[in-house]
Amino acid sequence: SQPTEQVPPPPLDQFSPQKPGQPPWVWAGMGALVLLALFVIFVLPGIVQDYELPLERRVEESLATAPVAPQQRAETGVSPFLEAQRARERKEAQDVLAELLDTQSQLDALQVEQWAKMAYDSALALALEGDESYRVQEFGSARDAYQQALAQLSATLASVPTVLEQTLISGEQALIARDATTAIANYELATLLEESLVDLAAGIASNDAQIGLTRAQALEELIDLLDSAERAAGNPARQVEILEQAVNLDPYSTEAAQALAQARADRLQERFAAMMSEGYTQLQAGSPQEAIARFEAAATLGVNENEARAAIAQTETEITNAKIAELQRRALDSEAREAWQEAVEDYDAIVAIDANLPTINRALDYAEKRARLDALLIAALDTPERFAEQAVFDETRDIYFTGRAIEDAGPRLVAQLDELQTLLENSQVPLSIRFISDGLTDVTVLRVTELGTFEQTRLDLKPGTYAAVGRRAGYREVREEFTVGFGLTPAVVIVRCNEAISTALGR
After folding, report:
1. How far is 275 from 283, CA to CA, in rounded Å?
2. Using one digit for the tens of pLDDT, what is the confidence trace for 295-353?
3. pLDDT of residue 389 exceeding 70
């Protein structure tokens, strides 16, 4: 090796305090700076490594540590394996701590102390225990304490949806209790919690909290409107006007909605009562159709429809009864006049209205029988000449006795029967009728007898209508109709066949 060159020592007066131009305090300051630099370089790193504060965020660092000189390891007495394990536990504790601090920040932003103070304080107490372990370099214990604290804070954060639901319920209860201050506080917290869920759900959430907050902020005004509506009791129209404002102010208020529904129902009840009163007034005034129109209008209001329908039915019944009474009066008048067919028509009209009136049904049956009897009597009196026929006579006689069997017969019936009696009696007294012919014509009185040929003869006939027929060979048949009795008896009946058939054809 080359011999080391000897460097001559500096002059003694180079750092001497007596050197001209260098005051003594300068040299003292330079010495202090040198000592400070040596402290920063060699002492401070070890202090920072051993006493780093755990509640501050740190930058990720590698588990690998700077190589330690063998001489240093020998001085500390810690093996490389244990040193590496401690470094790993320290990093794990710091990782858990970083997550713990992040969760704590989220909960602080959600005002956790308002809704989970005990759980939050318990978790922080565990974190402080971890800090103590960290300070004495028990990194495994610190990590475990941090993990327990993180688990508690994570559970608290996970309970936000449940807390939100409970807070919304509390807010609703405060609204119902008309406690605006409590309601606003609950809904403000709920809004904060709801917004955190929106962030977690990528913007998908309900607006229940914001709606509740808006309602709570308007609660005082809503209460004033509800109180005003209550003071307007007895004036449903005014109540509806006020409560419509209340519902517009808070569409979600059950109290306002129910009060408005009740006020509207009261207003309808008021209108219903007025319409029904008008209807009864019209009914008393003798205008049943107008009354029914009022009742019909009341029935369309949607309240007490059964009552309105009952009034309509009652009015219609009264109208029907009045009409029946009028028809019955007319029928009785017709009976008194013995105009039985008119009575039948009136009774038929009543039955068409109500077929379940026994008295009317009996009266109709009697009137129909009397009308038939009256018609038969009229027919018999109009054709007395038919009495000569025995069958007609017998039938007419039965009609006569039927009429006589009626009690309390009216004057019309009595007169008809008296007249018929005379006709029947006279119809049985024969009258002598003179017939003249030419001695060549064969004469027959239809349904009575054959007279044959004659020039003059007589035949006794009962009052009635007859027909004499004459026949002669080569001559046209002749027919002579005549009536016996009733003032129509002919003096003579001439029956001759004078018109020769051949002569008629020649013409």
Report:
1. 12
2. 899 888 888 888 888 999 888 888 888 899 999 999 999 999 999 999 999 999 999 99
3. yes
* Strands across the sheet containing 478-484: 449-452, 442-445, 464-471, 478-484
Instruction: Give the pair of three-digit tokens for residue 430.
Output: 């024969």
Judging by beta carbons within 10 Å of its beta carbon (0-12, 13-18, 19+), is residue 154 exposed, middle or buried?
middle
Which tokens sit at 331?
């029928």
Residue 479 CB coordination number (10 Å): 10
Residue 333 CA to residue 340 CA, distance in Å, equals 10
Give the total number of structural domains in the chain.
2
The 3-state secondary structure of 456-470, one letter per residue: EEEEEECCEEEEEEE
Contacts with 176 (C-beta within 8 Å, 6 or more apart), sequence order:
255
pLDDT in tens, 201-213: 544 457 888 888 8
pLDDT at 374 over 90: yes
Which residue in the block uniquely carries the two structure tokens 């936000």? 160
Alpha-carbon span 152 to 158, nearest angstrom: 10
Q: Could you tell me if 96 and 147 are in contact, meaning their C-beta atoms sit under 8 angstroms apart? A: yes
Contact 131, 55 (CB under 8 A): yes
Could you tell me the CATH number of the domain that includes residue 459? 2.60.40
Query: Residue 497: which pLDDT band, with cuts at 50, 70 and 90?
Result: very high
Q: What is the DSSP string of 28-79?
A: HHHHHHHHHHHHHHHTHHHHHHHS--TTS------S--PPPPHHHHHHH---
Q: Answer whether residue 162 is part of any domain.
A: no
Dihedral (CA of 122, 123, 126, 132) sign: negative
Asked whether residue 175 is domain-assigned, the answer is no
Each residue's pLDDT tens digit, 147-183: 999 999 999 988 888 998 889 999 989 988 989 899 9
User: Which residues constitute the domain of residue 506?
Assistant: 429-507
CATH of the domain at 364: 1.25.40
| Amino acid code (one letter) for 478 | V
Residue 313, CA atoms < 13 Å, CB-side half-sphere:
6
Dihedral, 55, 60, 63, 65 alpha carbons, nearest 10: -90
Distances (CA, A) of 432 to 256, 387, 447, 482, 489: 112, 17, 17, 13, 10
